[in-house]
Amino acid sequence: QASDSFPPLSNEAAVRVLRGRMKGIQGHCNSCYMDAALFSLFSCTSVLDSMLFKPFLLCDRNVQSILRDEIVNPLRKTGFVRARSVMHLREQLTEKGQCSSFTNAEKDPEEFLNLIMHQILGIEPLLKLQSGGQKEQDCYCYQIFMDKQEDLVVPDVQQLVEHSFLSSDLKLVEIPSCFIIQMPRFGKEYKMFSKIIPSLELDITDLLLDSPRECCVCGDIATLECS
Length: 227
Prior knowledge:
Helix content is 35%, strand content 8%. By secondary structure, the chain is mainly alpha-helical. The protein folds into two domains: 11-120, Cathepsin B, Chain A (Alpha-Beta Complex), CATH 3.90.70.10; 127-222, no CATH class. The strands form three sheets. It has a three-stranded antiparallel beta sheet with strand order 4-3-6. Strands 1-2 form a two-stranded parallel sheet. Strands 5-7 form a two-stranded parallel sheet. Strand 3 (127-131) and strand 4 form a beta hairpin. This is CYLD hydrolase.
């Protein structure tokens, strides 16, 4: 029902509802990867709200209702989600995903997203990538892989995505409806970057396959690309 749904938070409302103690998604038993992913996907954007409402072909309506009613709506309404609600989702993922460790172990966010988007909700892949002229790859999110760059001390997301695509010889086959990006991995002992500045907008012009671009020398339509 429309009365039971809440729009994503923006501007002053986001600051008012989400800032302070006992705000966000409560962590419990290695849930940080899922808490961070859910907060990023739903707190301040509606681009993936189809996950909450649309009856996809393979959609598990029980998981969908838990996600909508116990996690996303409380987050948008009060700015807080109890660990019990996330555990309820984790129990369902364990049951549906044929993996017994979703309730207690730390996972890669990509594993969580693939399970809930592909196997449980049946959503079509969000990204189409091509590497070095090879066959297209479909995926739900992109994880940044890169070597340590000495000139990038406090990078922004734009720089990291461009460096990662360049080093992996990757291109976006088409403009994605939603571009989920996982920042460089690090553990307790090592952090590649102490801080990463969020890019509020992402320019993907140079990341698109066969996208018309301006020559940096003459200003006409470019015919060659130099990495």
